[in-house]
Design a protein that fits this description.
By secondary structure, this protein is α/β, with parallel strands linked by helices. The protein has 12 helices and 15 strands. It has 2 domains: about 220 residues, DHBP synthase; about 90 residues, Rossmann fold, CATH 3.40.50.11030. Helix 1 packs across helix 6. The structure holds threonylcarbamoyladenylate and magnesium ion.
């Protein structure tokens, strides 16, 4: 076991950003805010820096990283963009859309887990953008959580999971979107495939690329991974993308069922239920009015809070299966996968 590191959380002052840019250029890793979730960043062109990311997260080498750029003008450095990619870039970057494209020789195999494609995005978080600009290199960054647990949406979440494993966390406030980016496979521009739903919805992408299809792969992959992990190491399975507490999904939760239930069960509604002034310690909601952006923003933090209380089960109401609701439901299904 490596000796625990002292973990410092830094505010986004000009001085701290300049300091962290130097640390990144020197091959260190830094947890950074993005508009989606916090990331654990390192120089994407430096295999030793990327190895530190995998080590700190306990992430298997088979799971590739996303490369973050300050601007689409840097694309040719890391990948071979096609015209579909450039169209999407113009429309949605900076923002929560990740494109999978053929990689260049400059990208080390550790970033892509040996694949010949690389996932890239230009994030919109102003603090991360300043850091990317100052650092001047593409930054590889997966979500800044221990492998298998819920992605962090605040600097405090990062510290809870990676404190002692990394030296620096850059605090840029709570993530605005709260769910990981949409991932689109554009290796074959004639057959774009959505790999992970996110805040850029299928309809958004369709407005630029009418032929985009949705992959069953994400859902199937979650189940397959769960099964194979279950065989090799039972117990690991329960923590895959998920809280430690068992998650049970519901299309709708009838209010009386929740209010009359065993107090060891937690109930999570999409919107604040009509229970007047009295609230029970096992009743939660994602958004006061049930808006999808509000629910997405609060989802991971709410699951973390409830997980820490140690309920027997967490019952969660699914979102309507459209737009951002699809991304919310995708994360809920992963959290519930056993
Ligand atoms: O919003 C986000 O995407 C955040 C922030 C930090 O940018 N990052 C993130 O990374 O969520 P994470 O931990 O989900 O890991 C990246 C995922 C991999 O698990 C994999 O599914 C996909 O991106 N990915 C990366 N490279 C890929 C490739 N070459 N082909 C297919 N999928 C890839
Ligand atoms: Mg992740």
């Amino acid at each position: 076991m490596a000796k625990p590191l002292q973990t410092r959380t830094l505010r986004a002052t000009a001085r701290n950003l300049a300091f962290l840019a130097r640390r990144l250029r020197a091959g260190e890793i830094v947890a950074v805010p993005t508009e989606t979730v916090y990331g654990l960043a390192g120089n994407a062109l430096d295999p030793a820096a990327c190895a530190k990311i995998f080590r700190a997260k306990g992430r298997p080498a088979s799971d590739p990283l996303i490369v973050h750029l300050h601007s689409a003008a840097q694309l040719p450095q890391v990948c071979q963009p096609n015209s579909a990619a450039l169209k999407l870039a113009r429309r949605f970057w900076p923002g929560p859309l990740t494109l999978v494209l053929p990689k260049t020789a400059a990208v080390p195999g550790i970033v892509t887990a040996g694949r010949d494609s690389v996932a890239v995005r230009v994030p919109s978080h102003p603090v991360f953008r300043r850091l990317l600009k100052l650092t001047g290199v593409p930054l590889a960054a997966p979500s800044a959580n221990r492998f298998g647990y819920i992605s962090p949406t605040t600097a405090r979440h990062v510290r809870e999971g990676l404190g002692g494993k990394i030296r620096h966390i850059l605090d840029g406030g709570a993530a605005q979107i709260g769910l990981e980016s949409t991932i689109l496979d554009l290796r074959d521009p004639r057959r774009p495939v959505l790999l992970r739903p996110g805040a850029i919805t299928l309809a958004d992408i369709r407005s630029v690329l009418p032929r985009v299809t949705e992959s069953r792969r994400t859902a199937r992959a979650a189940v397959t991974t769960a099964k194979s992990i279950g065989l090799v190491a039972p117990g690991l399975l329960a923590r895959h993308y998920s809280p430690r507490t068992l998650v049970v999904l519901h299309a709708v939760i009838p209010l009386p069922r929740a209010t009359s239930s065993d107090a060891r069960d937690a109930w999570v509604f999409l919107r604040r239920p009509r229970i007047g002034k009295k609230t029970a310690p096992n009743i939660f909601w994602l958004d006061e009015r049930g808006t999808l952006p509000g629910a997405a923003r609060r989802l991971f933090a709410t699951l973390r809070t409830i997980d820490a209380i140690k309920f027997r089960r967490i019952h969660v109401e699914l979102a309507p299966d459209r737009g951002l609701g699809r991304a919310i439901n995708d994360r809920l299904r992963r959290a519930a996968a056993r």
